[in-house]
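quick one: FE(4)-NI(1)-S(5) cluster bound model?
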Amino acid sequence: MDEKRRTSCTASQEMLTRAACDGIETAWDRHEAMEPQCGYGMLGICCRICAMGPCRINPFSEEEGRGVCGATADTIAARNLVRMIAAGAAAHSDHGRDVAHTLVLTADKKSEGYSIKDPVKLLAVAKEMGIKTGNRDLNEIAHDVGETAYNQFGQQEGELIFGHRAPKKQQEIWRKLNVFPRGIDREIVEVMHRTNIGVDCDYKNIIQGGMRAALGDGWGGSMIATDLQDILLGSPLPLRSQVNLGVFKDNTVNMVVHGHEPVLSDLIATITREPEMIEAAKEAGAEGITVGGICCTANEILMRQGFPIAGNFLQQELAILTGAIDAMVVDVQCIMPNLTEVSKRFHTKVITTSPKAKYPDVEHIEFHEENAYSTAKEIVKTAIDNFKNRDRSRVQIPHEKMDLVAGFTAENINWILGGKYRGTYRPLNDAIIAGRVRGVAAVVGCNNPKIEHDTGHYQLVKELLKKDVLVLETGCAAIACAKCGMLIPESIYEYAGKGLRETCEAVGIPPVLHFGSCVDISRLLMAAVGVVRERGCGDDISELPLAAAAPEWMSEKAVSIGFYAVASGIFTVLGVPFPVLGAPNLTRYLTEELENIVGARFAFESDPVKAARLMIEHIDKKRVERKMRPMLYAEGEGQKAEAKAEKEMVTP
Ligand code: NFS
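yep, here:
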């Protein structure tokens, strides 16, 4: 095994070596053992949706293959793909629904430990929803906002409220194509219906249904999750923190919070800062409590409270391998079933908390809003109690940790760019129009053992920065680049082209902006809306010099995200192709024809540098279409000037 080919993260390499020595299996080993992976599955041409099958289509046959019912490769692959959208949209949206539930309970004073933390956002959202504010009590307004959000899930007719945040031109496209989502749940159910045996057989129509469900995620479920979390837990502001396995300490109680819904983890994190808990940890022989997050829970408690991040998706097993984790608290999504196996080899207690996600033989402390504070406290106490069981001789915490800046949102970037008195995107639009900043890229998504861990993100972003593209990130992509030191303002000197560097320097921001968790991709949509509204760069999202990528994606949630991005007009490059390559017409439809229909398309490219170039080409095309100035500085000039300055620099 060559750890260096598996990941470019040195902390992860160290843990992989340890895993190999101790005979502990990780996702990389299981992926390797799985090879060669099923070709039919990868090409998307096996069908299991009825009991006449499983059917598979021979991709090498001259004749058009058909399943027992007569479904073609295009039909089969399209059905499989939109079912992935439905599952992904369901995950994000169910998360949003839970937050709406917590908000209603909090407003009704039935929850424990929560309050309205951002009344300004509450009033703004209430206004948008047509809810009376005036002199009404904040809790009453919050109740109505929660209920209205709730109703968006079961809405049968009409249009999702937040869909109206999209630029008018894009909304018109959605109406014309009949993809403006009516209700969040309705579109997901409809995808499941349409993909049943013998319903929708036209791959284009199947994709249309999938797009509608995906839009219901991006401009519905995910946006509700983000906005209501801001109201309930506070809107993020830029802050500094740290990332990587080195954030744990050998003399503190170490807790990992892992998963996605911040309603519990936010409380857990808060409680660990309470004097009573710190005292309890000291009584147990520790010097305090360290909380590090994994996956999007990490991003949530980082964005709002500055708690450090332990790692991204592929580092979850590795965190336990440090031997220093006293409790790993999980809720929902992206939690590997194998955590249980790894934890058996150490003292680590894995604790499940959601009634929706239990694991065999794992301690379950169920979370309900009504007694959230007490539950969170019980969980922290369990971790403290387990500290005594830690075998110090087996603790091996990698040294690597990196500083980062996070906490950017579509709202606060407005003030950061515009200044204290007049929030505006103008400086960004001006920098784009003047050719200082080439454009904007959204880099998002997971890790996948098919792609060298973190390298996909790092190489792609490095290439973009060099060419003066401002990068906005969320999810595990943001964690990857944070580990590489790209999320600190100083990184402009190492990575950014001259124009981008000048712009970031003037505003005082890093060239890679951390926008939060994956549901917070809704923030990226709103940032794009902000640029459109500021005028001059395009009248809808598809006209902007903007592109997106998910270089290491793996989750069904990423499929839903990809589709709402493309349906919103954002050219999207995927590092791992959709399982559609066995369906030639469908593949052409997704990677070429969609552009003339929704204003954007997909591209599949596993080489991150080539993927970045595709994005840059797209951005340049949009610049030409808008008749923007050529880039101010010739390519490479920034780096050359930098190297020269460095040489001339006199160190005192
Ligand atoms: Ni997104 Fe966040 Fe990470 Fe992928 Fe999983 S954590 S919701 S799905 S793996 S980026």
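Residues 260, 295-296, 313, 334, 445-446, 475-476, 517-518, 555, 557 surround FE(4)-NI(1)-S(5) cluster (CB under 6 Å).
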